[in-house]
Amino acid sequence: MKTLLVLLSICLSPLVFAEAKLTIDITQGVDNPTQIAVVPFRIKRGVDLVDDVAAIMDGDLLRSGQFAPITRNNMLSLPNKVRDVFFRDWRAINAEYVVVGSISSAVGGNIELSVSLVDVARQQEVLNRKIIGQKTRIRALAHAASDAIYEQITGIKGAFSGRILYVSSDKLEDGFIYRLHMADTDGYNERIIIESSEPVLSPAWSPDAKQIAYVSFEGRKPAIYRQVLATQEREKLVDYPGLNGSPAWSPDGKHLAMVLSKDGNPDIYVMNLETKALKRVVRHFSIDTEPAWLPDGKSLLFTSD
User: Fold this and answer.
1) Dihedral (Cα; 41, 43, 47, 49), 10-degree rounding
2) CB 3.0–4.6 Å: which of 67, 161, 221, 274 could bond 143 by disulfide?
């Protein structure tokens, strides 16, 4: 039996690996999600694709909780150019925006994804974007298109091109197996970072998304590790007696906040990752945990009882 323990962390850079095993269901969003129609893209001669770009984009926008993609069965027409968009067709099904486009060959064996966003109420094109990349990264191109549409409509940078870290567990006859995974935000291209018979907790991205920190109980007690994703090189940062947990990277990537109980109560400490020097920043008899950096890197938020 596989159990998804926790969905924890997201970063905003794409990376492609394998197939999807994680399914993410958004059960609640805004009260009045934006009605958007992503029309199937025209695939021009010479392009052979397995993935459905429009379906990928539908999934992205739906998972945001802010959009309600219109199903293809309800579309009255299937244009792939802005000039072929008949606004009466889309007003009839209450569409607020329509996405049309095409996929064609590009220089160097790449493919070009041409995307246009049309505002039905204003009856005009509000976004035109051409995204070029490798055929093998078609999902990444679709996520990039979703990011552009999301930002154009909401004014907020999209995160569909990002990656997530999550922990799962499988029950075995003699215990459990725990895995720390990395995947695209839609659960595809999953890669296992670490596998252990002991729990793995609290994964956190470095600001440049090249490293992660996490807590592992593989030595029968909690320890905080840092791992380089490209080389899989890992380093044990702390494994003091008691609690070692809640790693949080500083915005400049040079320090790691954490919770340690080595001096008695669980308190917040900050480690200089170059020198490994520790600074205790909270000293109190109550429990202090879950540190988070403010964007300027000069202050921390944390939970305390």
Assistant:
1) 50
2) 161
CA pair distance 282, 76, nearest whole angstrom: 62
Question: What is the pLDDT averaged over residues 221-238?
Answer: 95
Query: What pLDDT digit, counting tens, does each position of 161-205 carry?
Result: 999 999 999 998 888 999 999 999 999 999 999 999 999 999 999
Range with the poorest average pLDDT among 8-12, 74-78, 140-144, 159-163:
8-12
Instruction: Compute φ and ψ for 143, nearest 5 degrees.
Output: -65, -40
